[in-house]
Amino acid sequence: xxxxxxxxxxxxxxxxxxxxxxxxxxxxxxxxxxxxxxxxxxxxxxxxxxxxxxxxxxxxxxxxxxxxxxxxxxxxxxxxxxxxxxxxxxxxxxxxxxxxxxxxxxxxxxxxxxxxxxxxxxxxxxxxxxxxxxxxxxxxxxxxxxxxxxxxxxxxxxxxxxxxxxxxxxxxxxxxxxxxxxxxxxxxxxxxxxxxxxxxxxxxxxxxxxxxxxxxxxxxxxxxxxxxxxxxxxxxxxxxxxxxxxxxxxxxxxxxxxxxxxxxxxxxxxxxxxxxxxxxxxxxxxxxxxxxxxxxxxxxxxxxxxxxxxxxxxxxxxxxxxxxxxxxxxxxxxxxxxxxxxxxxxxxxxxxxxxxxxxxxxxxxxxxxxxxxxxxxxxxxxxxxxxxxxxxxxxxxxxxxxxxxxxxxxxxxxxxxxxxxxxxxxxxxxxxxxxxxxxxxxxxxxxxxxxxxxxxxxxxxxxxxxxxxxxx
Length: 472
Ligand code: GLU
Description:
Elements: H1 9-21, H2 28-35, E1 39-49, E2 52-62, E3 70-76, H3 82-98, E4 104-110, H4 119-135, E5 144-148, H5 154-167, H6 194-207, H7 210-216, E6 226-230, H8 234-245, E7 249-255, E8 258-261, H9 268-278, E9 288-290, E10 303-306, E11 325-327, H10 336-345, E12 348-350, H11 352-355, H12 358-372, H13 381-399, H14 405-412, H15 417-442, H16 449-468
Parallel strand pairs: 3-4, 3-5, 6-7, 6-10, 10-11, 11-12
Antiparallel strand pairs: 1-2, 2-4, 7-8, 8-9
């Protein structure tokens, strides 16, 4: 939620859009159409909790219909409001365009504190919300496909799927009505870690570019970089994991109740287990406590990864930020004032709408899997392994040398679902990073990477409107 009463997240998205629109050549009418939310559904519905009736406030916003279905997560939080859902829906449109995922942007939210309800009560709320979406044709594999977001996960997606399929018996592609499902319910392997992994792939690509690293005042490569991750939810946890595995040192981790710091490095899984056991991230063995969690953002580091909620870095604290690169794993963690400050300070901000696109990219793979009704790799895995075996045997016969068992195993391996999903995600993130940085380099007046990302997104959505025409 906004820490400033007057802050509008949607206005911030519009401001970033306008800043970038100057660098495109689209008709002002097209630009206005791209900016606005196409359909906004605000609902109130009653749910019986114990012996009381609670009226629940919820939303689904479809920002753009230039491609269908619309796509975007559903958030459960007390901070959910129309402004936030509109902003997040708009970011989904631009995010999908940047990573070439053929969807329009959408977002949903229910204004509740999920921790206050039992699983049974949450299921009732989720099912009722899904029912409301079905009634207004705001869900379906060809119209609008929700996914997890802050406060929701595989469990909620299963309830949504079950509600949808029970209301639409016999609909052959019904599994594609929602993504982020458990693998046992039509989910895809790799979806859970996709956003965090995408963040890692994106930053790794930036860190491999000499000119970008020169801009940031850092040496090339991920190895040895000091990383701070704010938020140990699904996205933050996996981002920390892949940075650590990639050779970086995660020096601080933060949660709502506080943060911990250890310049020698933290293991996210150990911290996660500690928090589960103790009920707090604080007092982790060998680490220093930071009692006021937001202070962690101001520590000296190379890469800062805000992976929680919007507006955590703003005009107030931005002047004190010491990171060289900020990778926006959350949606909207920086306000426009913070952006301006970082442009002046020369801090490289890698923007949310592309950096955290790993989630929706793998959601796209899940949706494709659901429409094709077959697991990735099922048809080709054995065939590839058999071919590889023949090639290896031929090489051995021709050279008279035997390939070692370990190498044989690696070379033989045919792709399974997780391999293909990881590969598709890596390709997507590398491609998007290059496209955005090229646009940025091509015009010296483009002030930052966010503006370059918006230029890429606006041009793609604009091209859709130009080619499809405007319906009379
Ligand atoms: N909620 C995620 C996001 O903000 C994922 C959306 C999706 O998979 O549709 O990108």
